[in-house]
């Protein structure tokens, strides 16, 4: 026979069950040996029934829920369901007599993709929880989804709309053929631009992947087209922000080229100038600062500058 390698923790769990069974067996043996078995049975009849009924309330409810789900089939293995009050979304892997096993969707990541973390939901909770089934028809597990793009007020509306619709049609071509539902656009105005809401039919379990491909296609087309631009709060325009960044970089580069020149390296021009003409200029500079630049020509052989 082939041995199965099971974790040690499973053996510990089973050993506790065996110890509990052994304890009750010893108690019954002692009662039988001393002729007190009837007293034990009377005690169990008085309190055991009540205790057993209380402890089995949840398992009985769970078992009844399992039968109900099996007969009515509001969801099946393979469906993606949501418990709104629990904030839980998952793919149904198995529906047992006591628990429904889910592969959690999201939770550890910020999108609707299965993460491989199994969650056991007691079937008894199904009587008190609202359950949303994303995939009522497994052979056609589609739902409406949207991608929101913010464009500036000076963008060309028709061009932006065309880019969004073409992106959705390109990515969801096979879904459009099966459902017959074409993508469409709704919009809202806000302080920094226009919300373009692209709505389309998506496959439930590929929702994150399809949304990513549509966003990527739209972004690439916007970069190629100068008549549309994405709005960014406080900057307003994505392209204007990039241009400002480039201008700031050029300005910073020019500032780096500024250098201090020692006055001893500047030679006065050999010109005959009347002091009466210079005095008003000096007073103006003292009062208002230098209004026009002074041009210096560098003498490469001497390393000096001439005005």
Question: Your description of this structure?
Answer:
This protein has four domains: 18-55; 60-138, SH3 type barrels (Roll); 141-232, Alpha-Beta Plaits, CATH 3.30.70; 263-306, no CATH class. It has 307 residues and is of the alpha+beta class. The protein is 44% helix and 23% strand.
Descriptive terms for the model:
about 300 residues; alpha+beta; SH3 type barrels; Alpha-Beta Plaits; five-stranded antiparallel β-sheet; three-stranded antiparallel β-sheet; 13 strands
Q: Describe the biggest sheet?
A: 5 strands, antiparallel
Judging by the overall fold, what is the CATH architecture of the largest domain? 2-Layer Sandwich
- Tertiary shape: elongated
Radius of gyration: 40 Å
**N→C terminal distance:** 103 Å
Total number of beta strands: 13
The strands making up the biggest β-sheet line up spatially as: 4-3-2-1-5
Query: Considering DSSP H and I runs of 4 or more, what fraction of the residues is helical?
Result: 40-55%
Structural class given helices, strands, pairing? Answer: alpha+beta
| String of helices and strands | HHHEEEEEEHHEEHEEHEHEE
CATH class of the largest domain: Alpha Beta
DSSP helical segment count: 8
| Fold-level CATH name of the largest domain | Alpha-Beta Plaits
Q: Mean pLDDT score, rounded?
A: 80
Query: What share of residues are in beta strands?
Result: 15-25%
The residue ranges in which pLDDT falls below 50 over 5 or more consecutive positions are none
């Amino acid at each position: 026979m082939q041995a199965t390698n099971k974790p040690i923790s499973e053996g510990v769990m089973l050993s506790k069950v065996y110890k509990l069974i052994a304890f009750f067996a010893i108690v019954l043996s002692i009662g039988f040996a001393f002729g007190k078995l009837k007293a034990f049975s009377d005690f169990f009849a008085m309190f055991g029934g009540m205790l057993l009924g209380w402890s089995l309330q949840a398992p009985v409810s769970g078992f009844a829920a399992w039968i109900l789900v099996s007969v009515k089939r509001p969801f099946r293995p393979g469906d993606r369901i949501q418990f709104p009050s629990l904030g839980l979304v998952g793919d149904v892997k198995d529906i047992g007599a006591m628990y429904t096993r889910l592969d959690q969707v999201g939770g550890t990541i910020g999108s609707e993709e299965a993460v491989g973390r199994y969650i056991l939901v007691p079937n008894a909770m199904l009587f008190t929880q609202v359950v949303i089934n994303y995939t009522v028809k497994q052979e056609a597990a589609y739902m409406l989804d949207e991608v929101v793009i913010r464009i500036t007020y000076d963008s060309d509306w028709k061009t932006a709309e065309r880019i969004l619709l073409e992106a959705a049609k390109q990515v969801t071509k096979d879904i459009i053929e099966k459902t017959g539902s074409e993508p469409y656009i709704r919009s809202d105005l806000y302080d920094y631009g226009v919300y373009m809401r692209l709505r389309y039919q998506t496959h439930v379990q590929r929702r994150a992947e399809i949304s990513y491909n549509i966003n990527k296609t739209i972004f690439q087309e916007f970069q190629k087209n100068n008549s549309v631009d994405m709005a960014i709060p406080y900057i307003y325009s994505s392209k204007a922000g990039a241009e400002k960044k480039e201008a700031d970089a050029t300005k910073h580069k020019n500032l780096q080229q500024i250098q201090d020149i020692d006055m001893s390296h500047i030679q006065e021009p050999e010109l005959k100038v009347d002091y009466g003409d210079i005095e008003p200029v000096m007073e103006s500079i003292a009062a208002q600062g230098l209004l026009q630049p002074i041009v210096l020509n560098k003498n490469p052989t001497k390393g000096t500058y001439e005005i």
